[in-house]
Amino acid sequence: MHMEYFVDKNSVVRKIWGKSDTILFIFAGASAEFALNKAVDWLYFTGRLPFDPIGRLFSTVSYAKAIIFSEKQAALRAIDAMVAIHSHVETQRKATIPDWAYRDVLFMLIDYSIRSFEVLDRELTRAEKDEVFQVFHRVGNRMGLKGLPGTFDEWETMRQSHLLLNMNHSTYTDDLFSQYNKHLGSIRFRILLEVQTLVAPPNVRTLLGFRKISLLYPLLTLYKISRLLKLDGLVKSLILPSKYKKEIKALDQHNYKPR
């Protein structure tokens, strides 16, 4: 029997989300932008993000992986489970997460998927960028999000608008970065900042006071060679604490086991 998947087996989205280093870059970028988002107080309401930002990363990745690599019905169940979790938080807080905040997260996943793959691998074609957009657009539709852009071009325009309207440097920003520092340690935290500088859009870098050019930029070629020599696992172990070794290994597609 033919198995139907939410994301086609040959999709570039599977290539992007099939490599642990690309995923770590996606979430490094998102962690910078989350700290600036005007709806970041929602992440503080449950307390899970500031209490355990790295554990939160892996739980979020597990949902993304379940959507991208599972057969269609399992992927839809994973999306519905995410919606249920958010609804529960809204009920607890007796308030509604604004539509623009949901769109921001979706837009981040599209943008950082493209940016991270292009930094670590190669430029994506326009058709491949469309593919990335379409996959996450389908996720947003299933979640029942309002006001989604219909095309990649519309998304680019809305993304720029969201970046200008929905971000500011607040006390949450400073607290979240101090939590990243606390949980990663100073050396790994410095590496995180450089990865964020590599993948973040210009106005995110400006609001966070980052340089234009990351110190990691000259090392990218060496890293790509380490990938070919299968030494990249060593590099990744330097980026995240050793207690997450198993989780990092599980990020790679060939080690991923669908739920």
How would you portray this structure in words?
The protein contains 15 helices and no strands. The two termini are 20 Å apart. The chain is 71% helix and 0% strand. The chain has helices spanning 12-16, 20-36, 41-46, 48-51, 53-69, 72-93, 99-120, 126-143, 152-165, 171-184, 186-199, 202-208, 220-228, 232-239, 245-251. It is globular, with a radius of gyration of 18 Å. The chain is mainly α and 259 residues long. The model has no long low-confidence stretch (mean pLDDT 88). It has one domain (12-247).
Quaternary assembly: single chain
Task: Tell me the series of helices and strands, N- to C-terminal.
Answer: HHHHHHHHHHHHHHH
Question: Number of helical runs?
Answer: 15
* Spatial gap, N to C terminus: 20 Å
Percent strand equals: under 5%
- Broad structural category: mainly alpha
Give the helix proportion (percent range).
Answer: over 70%
| Low-confidence blocks of residues | none
Number of strands: 0
Categorize the overall geometry: globular
Average pLDDT level: 88
Rounded radius of gyration (Å): 18 Å
The major pleated sheet works out as: none
Overall number of structural domains: 1
Brief characterization of the structure:
The protein has 259 residues and is mainly alpha-helical. The chain has 15 helices and no strands.
Task: Summarize the helices and strands and which ones pair or pack.
Elements: H1 12-16, H2 20-36, H3 41-46, H4 48-51, H5 53-69, H6 72-93, H7 99-120, H8 126-143, H9 152-165, H10 171-184, H11 186-199, H12 202-208, H13 220-228, H14 232-239, H15 245-251
Helix pairs in contact: 2-7, 2-10, 2-11, 5-6, 7-8, 10-11
